Model the fold of this input.
Amino acid sequence: MSSPLRSLVLTGATLSTGLMAGLFAAFSYSIMPGLGSTDDRTFVSAMQRINEAILNGWFFTCFFGALVLTAVAVLLHLRRPATPWLVAALVLYAAVLVITIAVNVPLNDKLAAAGNVEHIADLAAVRQRFEATWVGWNLVRAVVSTAAFGCLTWALLLTGRLPA
Done:
């Protein structure tokens, strides 16, 4: 396989994974702490709106593109010095997908199912069932996706230093 294609795929994997790591990190160090200091109505309403807004083409392209491009990068770099770093990145990012699908998405769905904040009788209970678990697992996603990004960055550096 041609070196430019390998480089392009690895660069795409690194960029998309970096964008996802940045998104999860931003939620961890700014969005959730900011929302955490608001009242229950504001918190629930804002998270419901965020969870609706994030479901768009840009998000899905990066979220799933990171996995697909990393998997393709592994295949294109088999038996090369960067292979272990690419496999590590793939495993780490797959863990991010599992966490998202198993924990964060179901919590988002339960928050949406609670309905309009104007009709929720106990906003504090809705928030309490959501916030701590979502925030904790998002922090895990941030750390794991950042580690995947680091592995891909190192693989990118290795491939730039070695002959094709």
